[in-house]
């Protein structure tokens, strides 16, 4: 299900498409269809993935379920592409802080003060894809190893009290702060199913780490971030709202 910009449709952005680059060839996204047909009064949807053990989550079109988050919903602007006024290409926001948090106070920043990382919120991506230096620091903190080229850690780390904190500040205001427990970043033993059970030479069970280093510049916050966050995507105002998730 496509929930981003119409400009991400393969009809338009696939070089082999006969309509490649033709913005007028886009078709209505589902939120446009629901709005145009009168089922919703505003082009807005909210996503609640629930935790790893859950079998269901929800996407709510046209509204917000206030029972599914803690504290205030904080708003940040979508980063538009190109020169002003810009173009909505995806759910891109500015990430200004990543830190390892150990306990109620201790915090180890992994990003420089005042730095900005442009990242895309993408429910179609199972993992987080972050700058290599950040991914390497988290992997080192968890004593990660690799298996078939993917990062794995001892499954004991799923019970860690540590978390990753993400901050989203913007000009004129302090944005949301979201903490993702290590246990929500690390997959349960045996997942992903296409790889199956992985053990170390000494018999230690290893679990897949859903945080990958990407050298390409653009980063993604996928499901290992979004499961711990209640997210509202406001198409009309080009804003994203975030709060700490409430699991059910």
Describe the overall structure.
The protein is mainly beta and 248 residues long. It has helices at 10-13, 30-36, 132-141, 182-185, 223-226; strands spanning 44-48, 58-61, 69-77, 92-95, 97-102, 106-109, 117-121, 128-130, 145-147, 150-154, 162-167, 177-181, 198-199, 205-208, 211-213, 219-221, 229-234, 239-245. The longest helix is centred in the middle third of the chain and has 10 residues, at 132-141. The radius of gyration is 19 Å and the shape is globular. The two termini are 24 Å apart.
The span between the termini is 24 Å
Main sheet specs: 5 strands, antiparallel
Oligomer: single chain
Spans of at least 5 consecutive residues whose pLDDT stays below 50 are none
**Hey, roughly how much beta strand do the residues contain?**
25-35%
Strand order of the largest sheet: 2-1-17-18-3
Helix run count: 5
* Helix and strand element order: HHEEEEEEEEHEEEEHEEEEHEE
Average pLDDT number: 88
Give the radius of gyration.
19 Å
Based on secondary structure, the structural category is mainly beta
How many strands appear in the DSSP assignment? 18
> What characteristic shape results from the CA principal axes?
globular
Helix content: 10-25%
């Amino acid at each position: 299900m496509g929930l981003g910009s119409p400009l991400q449709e393969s009809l338009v952005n696939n070089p082999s498409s006969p309509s490649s680059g033709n913005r007028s060839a886009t078709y209505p996204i589902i939120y446009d269809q629901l709005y145009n047909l009168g089922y919703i009064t505003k082009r807005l949807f909210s996503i609640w993935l629930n935790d790893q053990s859950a079998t269901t989550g929800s996407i709510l079109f046209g509204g917000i379920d206030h029972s599914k988050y803690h504290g205030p919903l904080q708003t940040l602007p979508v980063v538009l592409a190109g020169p002003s006024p810009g173009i909505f290409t995806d759910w891109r926001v500015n990430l200004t802080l990543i830190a390892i948090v150990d306990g109620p106070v201790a915090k180890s920043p992994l990003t420089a003060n005042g730095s900005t990382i442009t990242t895309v919120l993408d429910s179609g991506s199972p993992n987080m894809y972050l700058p290599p230096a950040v991914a390497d620091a988290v992997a080192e903190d968890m004593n990660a190893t690799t298996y078939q080229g993917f990062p794995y850690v001892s499954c004991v780390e799923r019970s860690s009290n540590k978390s990753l904190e993400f901050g989203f500040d913007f000009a004129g205001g302090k944005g949301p702060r979201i903490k993702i427990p290590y246990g929500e970043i690390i997959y349960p033993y045996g997942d992903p199913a296409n790889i199956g059970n992985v053990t170390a030479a000494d018999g230690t069970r290893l679990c897949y780490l859903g945080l990958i280093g990407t050298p390409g510049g653009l980063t993604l916050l996928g499901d290992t971030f979004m499961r711990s966050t209640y997210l509202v995507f406001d198409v009309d105002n080009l804003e994203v709202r975030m709060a700490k998730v409430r699991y059910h």
